[in-house]
Amino acid sequence: MKTREEFIRLFESIDFEKIIDHPNILIAANFWDEERYQAARTCYRYMRNLDDQIDDYKAEHNGITVEEKQRFKDIIKQWMSMLQDGKDTTPFGTELTDTIKRFRIPLWALETFAESMLYDVNYDGFATLGDFIQYSGGASVAPASIFVHLAGLKENQGIYYDPPFNVRRSASPCAMFSYFVHIIRDFRKDQHNNLSYFADDVLARHQLTRTDLKNIASGAPITGGFREMMREYYRIADGYRLSTLKVMDEVCPLLEQRYRLSLEIIFELYMMVFERIDPDKGTFSTEELNPTPSETRERVRKVILRQ
Q: Domain total for the chain?
């Protein structure tokens, strides 16, 4: 068990200015033992490779051609084959399957994530809010479940055993809270990159179109309907926030202190963004909603001092 002083020493070693991509995960995992940290990096490398290829293409092109759709489907199929032990003998393929076996990574999480990438290839956005929530089960809940799984593993003499709780159920509320916060925070950036996570039925309910979102992201005045839409998404996020608090009360007592700390840090870092969302007067810019490195550092310090 690590003491608060040891946590502070680890905290002081983190360069918050240099953590740019996926900072919440990288910050929180700094407090894990090295083996689990590397296991998380291996799994997230697998997922990020798939996600980035598709998102980067969409950022450069307005839509995916039939030919490119097939190419991406082939890539996803190839990457899913890596999950089968011995089928991929590349260094990373071996590293991935070894990690899955040693740390008992639930295959459903990696497979569900890959399925959400297939959705990205086949569809342009989301017809309904229900479609988005179902998609989030792969795009957000699956990666979060791997994080919670690794945090909850029990270890005895170098052998890992499954967490003593339902990982998917425990990870889902915080994953959904963070995802709704994420799409509000990144609204302008996503629109510029030809990505939209706001469902068509919600847009219609507030008398908005996808073109309206593009225009607002590019500097057009924010309309009342847009603020009402953001208020709806904010309320949904708040519901998941409250559910997260209940789950953390159940799960955190079952975790070793360093892993409990990592979950609390992730939640608090998304809370920093959530607290900045102002549906009534906000501009929904990245600058407005993203905490500075120094603010992030101070929030993490406060979480550690609560231990």
A: 1
| Contacts for 221-224: CB closer than 8 Å, 24+ residues apart | 222/283, 222/284
Q: What CATH number should be reported for the domain holding residue 252? A: 1.10.600.10
Confidence (pTM): 0.93
The C-alpha atoms of residue 167 and residue 107 are separated, in whole angstroms, by: 13
**DSSP class of 69:** H
Q: What is the DSSP letter of 91?
A: H
* Tokens read off for 41: 């990096």
pLDDT in tens, the chain (307 residues): 568 889 999 899 888 887 766 568 778 988 999 999 999 989 998 888 888 889 888 888 888 889 999 999 998 988 888 887 667 778 888 899 999 999 999 999 999 999 999 999 999 999 999 999 999 999 999 999 999 999 999 999 999 999 999 999 999 999 999 999 999 999 999 999 999 999 999 999 999 999 999 999 999 999 999 999 999 999 999 999 999 999 999 999 999 999 999 999 999 999 999 999 999 999 999 899 999 999 999 999 999 999 8
Contact present, 44 and 22 (Cβ < 8 Å): yes
**Does residue 31 contact residue 285 with C-beta atoms inside 8 Å?**
no
CB 51 within 8 A of CB 117: yes
Q: Which helix (H) or strand (E) holds 156?
A: strand 154-156
Q: Which amino acid is at 300?
A: V
Q: Among the residues of 103-166, which ranges form H helices?
A: 107-122, 129-136, 142-152
Do residues 81 and 87 touch, judged by C-beta distance below 8 A?
A: yes
Instruction: State both tokens at 77.
Output: 């199929």
Domain limits at 100? 4-12+21-305
